[in-house]
Specification:
With 199 residues, the chain is mostly helical. Helices cover 69% and strands 11% of the residues. The chain has helices at residues 2-13, 15-19, 25-46, 76-101, 110-142, 157-189, 193-198; strands at residues 49-59, 62-71. The chain has a two-stranded antiparallel ribbon with strand order 1-2. Strand 1 and strand 2 (62-71) form a beta hairpin. Helix 3 packs antiparallel against helix 6.
């Protein structure tokens, strides 16, 4: 009888160590890849600069040249893009640290709700930054004949190519942030979350 009770106690305790160290490796790896994507987008755009010399006038047979630099901080949309992606990178870094260290500091399941809200806010900010930078990139590549705005990508090709690479990395990060947001909301709405919080 005692051995049976002992067996029951052992059986009851066996699942507990299995559930405690179990981590959501899919979500954690998505966060790592999203961090790498948004961080690379931030760095590529922040260091995006190209300087070229142009002939602006000709006096007699002597050409007069001017050095013109294209930098990301000359366009407010690109500055916002860098801020939004930098914020997303920092957010993902903090969330990775919380995934690794956070479960022991959880208070009645409040951590999951906070993570879900912050994920949504970061995704919205990254979306706004991507939209603004995409609009300006389209304008730089093709111009606007109605407003008589000339394109610049035929003159600053390297600058535009780097900006395009930053946009691609940022959109990858945004898609991953969208998936992460959905997963954190699903995690928040799981019924067994209450059992986790109370144990």
């Amino acid at each position: 009888m005692a051995s049976e009770n002992g067996d029951k106690v052992e059986l009851g305790l066996n699942p507990v160590p299995e559930t405690k160290p179990k981590k959501d490796w899919v979500l954690l790896s998505l966060r790592v890849v999203a961090f790498l994507a948004t961080a690379s987008a931030t760095l590529v755009m922040a260091f995006n600069k190209q300087t070229k010399r142009f002939v602006v006038a000709t006096v007699g047979s002597t050409p007069i040249t001017a050095t013109i630099a294209a930098k990301f901080n000359q366009t407010p949309a690109f500055v916002f893009f860098v801020i939004a992606n930098g914020n997303a990178s920092l957010h993902n870094l903090v969330m990775i640290a919380m995934d690794v260290l956070g479960p022991q500091y959880d208070y009645k399941g409040l951590r999951l709700a906070l993570v879900a809200i912050l994920d949504m806010m970061t995704m919205a900010l990254a979306s706004a930054g991507d939209g603004a930078a995409t609009f300006m990139s389209e304008l730089g590549k093709h111009g606007n004949s109605h407003a008589r705005w000339d394109k610049i990508c035929d003159k600053f090709g390297t600058y535009c190519n780097r900006g395009g690479a930053a946009l691609i990395a940022s959109f990858i990060g945004f898609i991953l942030l969208l998936i992460i947001s959905v997963m954190s909301i699903i995690k928040l709405l799981k019924p067994n979350r209450i059992n986790h919080a109370s144990s």
